[in-house]
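Re: beginner question about structure tokens

> Can someone show what the tokenized structure looks like for a real chain? I only ever see the sequence side.

Sure, here's an example I had lying around. Input first:
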Amino acid sequence: MGVDVTTRRAHVSVLTPAQNEELKLRDCVASVCGWVDEVFVVDSFSNDKTRQIAEEFGVDVVQHRFEGFEQQKNWALGSFAFSTTGC
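And the corresponding structure tokens:
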């Protein structure tokens, strides 16, 4: 009696930093929905429809002032509760 490893898979999360990405975000999120467990968008106070597009997909989106790519990702890793949401 063994474990059926064919039904097990890793939990996959996507973290996307964004600022004024309305032209790219829809395709970005759509390309991963369906095979990832959750998507998080960190929006750096965009002046376009970036936040609205993320919300249309039902993904978690927060706003945070951009301080650099590394800082933005590290902030997000410590701020989101990685579970099963979105898409």
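Each token stands for a local structural state, so reading them left to right follows the chain. The beta strands are 13-18, 38-43, 60-63.
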